[in-house]
Amino acid sequence: MISTEYVVSEQPFTVRRTVKWGQCDPAGVVYTVVFAEYVISTAELFYGCLFGQGPQQAKDKYQFGTPTRGLTFDFRKSLRPDQQFDTEVRVGRIGTSTYQLLMHARDMEGDTVFTACLTPICIVRGQRESIPIPEYFKEKLKAHQTSDAP
């Protein structure tokens, strides 16, 4: 069986993905909305690495959630079916309740495909009330923080 996404490095945290045929339009180019799925899926794998267990199990255990407050993209190249690319994750600015996950996707030739900034906000699990980033989670984020965070 062939895996279409997997972690290739934990430092820097990097996910390799293969584009599936069903993620593309009739012209054979990845649909724009699929890039958001790539980013969210990569973030979930990143959280799994940070917690050492399933991210939703960990968030249940510690009673907090991380819904998306913001998501921005800069697209540089299109992707086609069966094409592989790597997405590297770095932590940008860490605020009181929010933090940035900076993602840089490159094709196998090393060319930038896209960059993205995912800004989650910490909330009380099951409520829509922001909370400060839990200290143990903040420390894990700092281990992946980039020195050139915006």
UniProtKB/TrEMBL annotation:
InterPro entries according to UniProt: HotDog_dom_sf
Gene3D superfamilies recorded: Hotdog Thioesterase
Pfam families named in the record: 4HBT_2 (PF13279)
CDD domains reported for this sequence: 4HBT
Name listed for the protein in its UniProt record: Thioesterase
